[in-house]
Amino acid sequence: NYHIFPLCKKDEVDNYIMNTHEKIDKARKKKTDSSAKIGLLGSPTFFKTIRSKLISKGFRVKCYFIPYHPSKIVNFLFNNKIGFNLFLILKRIDFKFFKLNYKYKDPKIKEFLEKDKLDIGFHKLGFILKRNIIDPFKIGLINDHWAILPFVKGRSTIEYSLLFGFPIGA
């Protein structure tokens, strides 16, 4: 009950991708407005390079870590202080981030994020987001999904893209 067979033809997906690329090309030609306050949500290891590039372009960036993952092994690592600190050292994470020790549905996450008055966010979280994480961003939150939406939804998106014969994309 997590996947829906896309009721469209491959050429519809190809046209959608082509139109999206045209929009991206237009956006890249515009001058960058670096006045936005950006929030990056997820493990700091995902954001090391992205954070650095955004800061070099003049953006104000803050990172937030919500230590929850549906995998019991990953969840254990996220919540084991010694293991997680060792992981950060091995990955050479040397920047400040905020660890939000709340359940991922907790309204306190919204309160915490709203205090920073963030404009836009990007997340790399391993769960379906709730309003407490989406709402605090004035412009919006960019969703990380490794398939062409709205055509391939749910988890295991790379596998389903291959199964349906769709290009793999984000």
Characterize the structure shown:
The protein contains seven helices and five strands; from the N terminus they run αβαβααβαβαβα. The protein has a five-stranded parallel sheet, with helices on one face. It is α/β, with parallel strands linked by helices.
Strand order of the largest sheet: 3-2-1-4-5
Shape: globular
Number of helices: 7
Could you give the count of β-strands?
5
Unreliable stretches: none
Alpha-carbon Rg, integer? 18 Å
Alpha-beta classification: alpha/beta
What share of the residues lie within helices?
40-55%
Biggest sheet layout: 5 strands, parallel
How far from one another are the termini?
22 Å
